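A reminder from the course coordinator: this example appears on the midterm review sheet, so study it carefully.

Given structure:
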């Protein structure tokens, strides 16, 4: 028996060697096309799922700068406390009990129209300041204190400022009528000392922790960073 197409000897099914080879090649090409189509479909489905996830959960770009810097002052670490846990300040009075410190206005509420824009673009973190820059900002922090010469709490505050290398302006309310009037205008009473650190007025009296927290906040504002931690040198009671 011979093949009708090629004139070669054929088997019982009427196909010769050439027919069988062509059939095998055709089956191989079909299998390859099916495998390629399956891969393309799989990649398409994966891309669609990834795009849907990105649209549903946008990546928020964040720039976080953490800096721990300590001024060159030897002291034991001070445990961080929440504002509500800050120990009460030591307060002296001028001929009367100190009145309650004026309450600070609450922070302005965020606008209801404010919209946080999420960006998938990488954000370059800001440059971290050097130790010398932190030291310079620390020692340049302006400190103003209203006090008297006989007040023991005022004397303790002076010792603390000197021990920690903080320059401060000391205004004696007994010797300076303008300082006395300014004290009354600021606090509404006669509690001393009254300390102002770079525009941030503390409660009447003196607290090492509150003072160093205000100094750290001033350094952070000047350097445009966050996470500054200061370890103060304490003075004996």
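Designed residues:
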């Amino acid at each position: 028996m011979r093949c009708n197409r090629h004139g070669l000897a054929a088997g019982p099914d009427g196909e010769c060697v050439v027919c069988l080879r062509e059939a095998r090649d055709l089956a191989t090409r079909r299998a390859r096309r099916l495998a390629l189509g399956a891969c393309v479909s799989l990649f398409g489905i994966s891309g669609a799922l990834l795009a849907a996830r990105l649209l549903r959960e946008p990546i928020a770009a964040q720039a976080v700068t953490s800096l721990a810097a300590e001024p060159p002052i030897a002291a034991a670490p001070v445990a961080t406390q929440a504002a509500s846990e800050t120990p009460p300040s030591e307060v002296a009075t001028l001929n009367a009990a100190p009145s309650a410190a004026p309450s600070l206005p609450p922070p302005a509420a965020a606008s209801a129209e404010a919209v946080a824009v999420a960006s998938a673009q990488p954000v370059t973190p800001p440059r971290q300041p050097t130790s010398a820059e932190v030291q310079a900002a620390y020692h340049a922090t302006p400190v103003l204190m209203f006090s008297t010469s006989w007040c023991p709490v005022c004397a303790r505050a002076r010792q603390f400022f000197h021990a920690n290398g903080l320059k401060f302006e000391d205004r004696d309310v007994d010797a300076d009528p303008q300082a006395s009037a300014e004290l009354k205008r600021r606090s509404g009473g006669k509690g001393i000392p009254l300390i102002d650190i770079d525009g941030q007025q503390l409660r009447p009296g003196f607290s090492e922790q509150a003072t160093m927290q205000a100094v750290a906040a001033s350094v952070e504002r000047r350097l445009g960073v966050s996470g500054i931690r200061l370890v103060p040198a304490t003075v004996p009671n």
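The chain has two domains: 1-62, 68-98+127-237. DSSP finds five helices and six strands in the chain.
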